[in-house]
Amino acid sequence: MNFLELFNGVVDLAKPVSAAQSHAASMQDQLADLKLDSLDTIMLAMYLGEIYGVEEDTMREMEATTVTDLQAFLEAHKTHTPTDLEAELARVK
After folding, report:
1. Within 13 A of 38's CA, how many CA atoms are on the CB side?
2. CA 78, 82, 86 angle in degrees (round to 5)?
């Protein structure tokens, strides 16, 4: 599954009003540059943690600066491997 597509799909859930402004164009995009406020970031972490089966306490330890860092963190701590984009997004809605 394409992580960038998953990331942008989760952004759509976490920031429904102006999500397109916060979509990542590449895996090297800096999270700080994506116009996500603190609530958006919390929601993004909650959704991705649920998709990957990462405990909430573990998600609080995340210190990712890029989309690549975020993916690496999730892969390192996952208890679930997402395989279908639409199914995963529907599961966390």
Report:
1. 1
2. 145
End-to-end CA distance of the chain: 19
Closest by CA to 53, choosing from 1, 88, 14, is 88
Strand partners, 85: none
Full set of structural domains in the chain with CATH = 3-85 (1.10.1200.10)
Smallest Cα–Cα separation from 68: which of 35, 38, 29, 32?
29
Report how far residue 17's alpha carbon sits from residue 3's, in angstroms, rounded to the nearest whole number: 22
Q: What is the pLDDT of residues 12-43, one digit of tens each?
A: 999 878 787 899 999 999 999 999 988 999 99
User: Tokens representing 70?
Assistant: 């975020």
Q: Which residue has the tokens 């590449």?
A: 26
Residue holding tokens 């405990």? 55
- Report pTM: 0.93
